[in-house]
Design brief:
Helix content: under 10%
CATH superfamily of the largest domain: Immunoglobulins
Structural class: mainly beta
Distance between the termini: 63 Å
Length: about 325
């Protein structure tokens, strides 16, 4: 084999195994392996990525030590962007590296976290750095409810693409928690009622409500969270459905029990100089807060007759800084982040 062919072969091996070391290193001396190739996590939960790795203990009489270890999802294998420096993951990561193992814990999973994560370590030796190229593919999913028939009886199952422990389920019927249904993956529904499920400890990440019938009572909030600037105007909105006439409707804050009653008219009365409630066609409702202040930071929920109030609503956070998004809702202007 010519010298040129040998050189090309070495370059090919280096690229194939994804590490950047001088040609004096033996490729077999460097390596790594992920515990799992694919990890599935629910929105809001925590996942742990693991990688074992190895490298020469000495070189030219010097002891080799790992000086830096990192995980990344952006950048090339030889020029990665350290995940710990990415603002998207601020305060959500824990890195724990010991001996020949490195673990990354990622909390409060978001759909935007999906992708392939790789591990790289850098030693004190010249050219001694390595990326474990296969990576770990992270999938993030939400809960959903599937309809089926069991022994000619209707049934609803709390479903996820991830493998879950069925003992951790929590069920809600018409917006109220049903302790007698908890810990069950599959339940028997009742006519004209809606059902949602969640994992214990992650109740804010509910499955969308499902009706067994074509009509039932349910509420859907447009936003789980809203970030607004002080002094701005915010519309907290939801859509709702009901199988019979709604007699009473209200927005309230669970933290202090305040309730604002809404009339059955299309446009509701003004509650005070800063709070307005709007209702349109018995299907959509909005609470408008003008000139928001720090004290308005709270969770807001909507309820009506036959519908409970145990489900999480929309959490408003008021800040003095940040970017705003302008949105029109029935001719109203909101400032939402």
């Amino acid at each position: 084999m010519s010298w040129t062919a040998q050189r090309d072969f070495v370059i090919f091996v280096i690229l194939l195994f994804g590490f950047q070391v001088s040609q004096s290193w033996e490729p077999s001396e460097w390596g790594g392996k992920y515990t799992q190739k694919t990890i599935c996590g629910l929105t809001g939960t925590t996942v742990i990525l693991n990688c074992s790795f190895w490298y020469p203990q000495t070189h030219d009489g010097h002891i080799i030590k790992v000086e830096k270890a990192l995980w990344f999802i952006k950048g090339e294998d030889d020029q990665p962007e350290d995940l710990m420096m990415d603002a998207q993951y601020t305060d959500r990561l824990d890195l724990n590296c010991q001996s020949n193992w490195c673990t990354l814990s990622m909390r409060e999973l978001r759909k935007s976290d999906e992708g392939k994560y790789k591990f790289r370590f850098i030693t004190n030796a010249t050219g001694g750095q390595y990326t474990v190229t296969s990576g770990v593919t992270l999938e993030v999913t939400d809960l959903s409810i599937k309809k089926s028939w069991r022994d000619r009886n209707p049934s609803l199952s709390c479903h996820s693409e991830c493998d879950l422990d069925s003992s951790s389920y929590i069920w809600y019927e018409n917006g109220k928690q049903r302790p007698n249904l908890n810990s069950k993956k599959t339940i028997s529904p009742v006519d004209y009622r809606s059902y949602s499920c969640a994992l214990r400890g992650h109740e804010q990440h509910l499955s969308p409500p499902v009706c067994w019938d074509t009509s039932c009572d349910k509420v859907l909030y447009k936003y789980k969270t809203i970030c607004a600037l002080k002094g701005s105007i915010v519309d907290i909105t939801c859509t709702y459905s009901n199988h019979k006439a709604v007699l009473e409707k209200s927005w309230f804050r669970p933290d202090n029990g305040n309730t604002w009653n809404i009339t059955s008219e299309r446009w509701a009365l003004q509650l005070d100089h800063r709070f307005l409630t709007y209702d349109k066609s018995g299907e959509r409702s909005a609470l408008r807060i003008k000139d928001v202040t720090d004290s308005d930071s709270a969770e807001y929920r909507f309820k009506f007759s036959a519908w409970g109030s145990d489900l999480r609503g929309t959490t408003l956070t008021v800040t003095g800084n940040g970017e705003t998004l302008h949105e029109n809702l029935w001719g109203l202007t909101s400032k939402i982040e």
